[in-house]
Specification:
This protein is α/β, with parallel strands linked by helices. Helix content is 51%, strand content 11%. It contains eight helices and five strands. It has a five-stranded parallel beta sheet. α1 crosses α2. The mean pLDDT is 93.
């Protein structure tokens, strides 16, 4: 974060790695993923998940007219890399990256998460969440769905871009009726969350392991 931080009118959170410890969740999920591959998913399961993650990073810096266009190209590139089909990649991603982790998410939540977010709302500060990944089910699993006032992801309509593109944070600011310069972005990656915040004209606070030291 650069400069003196003024009291924000809205706090916009990144989700993965910020609201919960992503490394802790992966320690739970990786053995299950390997077991799933051994029990029937085979090498194709691992190839599809790895290809999806790898090609997602390659999409940073590209913009799309709609979120659906971004998602379609992502699946197409991942399928080509994995030697599979877009439909198969989509099904495996939904199962292993979006649905199965939900039951373990609350145990990986950052300490004091719920009181912190509730405290913001009690002080009259608006709260939003923007992630490169789907947000709704994860916020429900974390118990934040009724506290967060606005949420969107890279594949939402009106976004169509991964961070560090600022489109998602700017969309949240519009939905919350707060000027960008009155928003504080909280995230765990300066190269993505921080860069997007600065591009949007918002303050930024780095949290998590990368903020240590």
């Amino acid at each position: 974060m650069e400069g003196a931080l003024r009291r924000p009118e809205a706090v916009l959170f990144d989700l993965d790695g910020t609201l919960y410890d992503e490394r802790r969740l992966r320690r739970v999920m990786v053995p299950r993923l390997l077991m799933g591959a051994a029990l029937g998913g085979g090498p194709k399961l691992l190839r599809c998940i790895q290809a999806y993650r790898q090609t997602r990073e390659g999409l940073r810096g590209e913009t799309f007219p709609t979120g659906a266009a971004l998602e379609a190209l992502h699946l197409e590139r991942a399928a080509a890399l994995a030697g599979s089909s877009s439909d198969e990649v989509r099904a495996l991603v939904e199962e292993w990256l979006e649905q199965r982790p939900l039951r373990h998410l609350v145990r990986a939540a950052r300490p004091g998460l719920l009181p912190t977010v509730r405290g913001l709302r009690e002080r009259g500060i608006r709260v939003g969440v923007f992630s490169d990944h789907p947000t709704t089910a994860k916020l429900q699993a974390l118990g934040l769905d009724e506290i967060v006032e606005a949420q969107c992801s890279a594949v939402s309509e009106g976004v169509g871009a991964l961070k560090p593109d600022p489109a998602g944070f700017l969309l949240l600011a519009r939905e919350l009726a707060v000027a960008p310069q009155a928003c504080l972005v909280v995230g765990d990656r300066d190269d993505c969350d921080g860069a997007a915040a600065r591009a949007a004209g918002m303050d930024f606070r780095l949290v998590g392991e990368r903020a240590a030291g």
